[in-house]
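Q: For a teaching session next week I want to show students how multiple molecules come together into a single three-dimensional assembly. I've collected the sequence lines for a complex. Could you give me the predicted structure tokens for the whole thing so I can convert them for display?
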Amino acid sequence: MNHLSTAELLLLAEGELDEVRAAHAAVCAECRVASEQAISELEAVTGVLASTGAKDSAEAKADSWVRLRASLAAAPKPQHVEIEDLLLHLDGETAPAVSEHLEACSDCHDDLLRAQTLLVDVEHELRALIPEESKQERLRSAARLEKALDARRSRVLTFPAPWRAVYAAAALAAAGLFGISWYAQQPAQLAPVMIASAPQAPAVVSIPQPAPRTMEIEQPAEPVAESAPVAVAAAETPVPSVKPERFDAPAAQDSTAPQRPALVAGAAPALAFVARSVALESELPQLERPAEQQPAQSQTLIALEPTRVVVNERPAGGIVRSALLEHYGDAARRSFRTARPDLLEGELARYVSDVLHAESELLRHAYALHELVKDADPATFDRKSNAEARKTLATIRQQEELLYSKLSEALPRRFWATKGQRDADSEEVALRDGSAALLEAALKLDKGLSAIFVEADSAVALETEPASLGDLLYTVRSSSRNLQQRLSVLR
Amino acid sequence: MAGFGHSSGAAWETEELFAEHRDSLKRYLRRHLDDPSTAEDILQECFIRYFQSRNRGDEIEQPRAWLFRVAHNLIIDYARKARADLLDEDGWERLEGRMSGGDQGLEARLHLSSLPWDRLTEQEMECLRLRSEGLKFREVGEVLGLSISTVASYIGRAVKKLQESEKREPSEHGRTAPTR
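A: Of course. Below is the structure for the complete assembly, covering every listed component.
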């Protein structure tokens, strides 16, 4: 509020004030009172002047002040702004004239301030009536929404029921044709097992037998201790170039040492075939061959034979794969958008621990399964062993699902914990890099696991050289540790 | 806001909005529904509808106002449905409890408040509720289906009533009258 200064009041009394400022005196009650007071004081001074002999001058001044008083009195009383317009002014919704008036009129200005103060009081009072929610409640709420959105999003990604049936029928038909033709050509050999199939001609990809490696099965629920040696390079290199000892390939293997099972060499294909055979056992009754072509062994044991894996390259695989990529990318983008160490650290540590635990469990059961079936004699593989193998396989699937859900669901949760803290810094970048490495590893793992375990309509195409399950899990482990290492740097 | 039919983008946008407006929307719902779980259900529904709407490619110019409007409508639907379902006497009591919180609920707390809310009409109160959640007058109008000038008029009247009450009963509400 720019009221008239003393000098301006004197200029007004003298009739010398410019029009804009004189207009302010007309609308501003405060300035009008002040100007009348100034005139009165000047009249008193003029009276003194008149008594000292400057009579003409004093009379002239008196006349001008009378005119000025009259003009001030005659000036239209200012139209004050209604409360509605005052309120709209708060949102910048008023006409320019109202704003100008508010600039000039102290009464309206005060009214505006009072209304504004009252609204603030109202806001506080109303907010105080509702109990504050805890952070946990908010997180639960966020998780609920996220789940609901994911469910709706996944509906978009799945095939509509009619197409699913078409794909399933096509898959079975292709599997049957392939199996029959293969048996016809190589009756002495065992049937190959297909991983998914498609209306399109399947591409045959053979999984090369990796070099044998030694490994130790990690005990479950082994969190990554900070003091544990972390086989990672500096934080700048997301993936270590040196693998942990238990994954090292035995370049110079001690022949006297007890031979450990080469999981990577045998388990991955074996798992794939066991998984597929179990799945196909329930799906393939219609593909029964003539009795002479029936293998003597169970489907489970068929799966143990080294054979080829048919990886489909149907468009559906690409769609699902794109959806997975998008899903993980979205999750990671949300989750690691900010790095606030005090919030991220604990949650991320738990997350990494959960992932490692799930992965260890998967590996442990995979090893157990391999142990169970690697030396089994098809002729003596009894029903009990078969049931045990299936049970172990079911556990592996559960662990894989757990791992999958951890990778897909745990990431976005951190977004909510760090929402609102978006100061980018180097650590954030480092974390993002770490998360990207983890994500990449998770994707590779997902591709591998999906190709091996997942049912037909979500199978993915292996575009590059198929990695072994052990390699994929190792990559996840390395990336997780890298992330853990970065977190410890944040402390 | 650009429209798109991309599920991830819509989900991302929905979650952004959730993080931004969840608390204020939940408070607004709790003012009408003292049952936290019902309020939470409606809250979730609001954001799911937003996601679905954006996923269809609908344009939403003012997301905050849109969400509050959906919440407002869902509250009305809930009240209608609940009243239709609960025709017996006990049911009415339960409904009263769920909508207002009963003796221990919002109404009781309103009476303990230092402002004389009972002098306001429901429309004036609703405008104030929305305003207190940070909505602009234009957005309040969007939510309630009123013009901006009507909203300003309701809130202006409410302000006057509250100010008059302050002048008349300064001791009762523990406030002093404005100096002017």
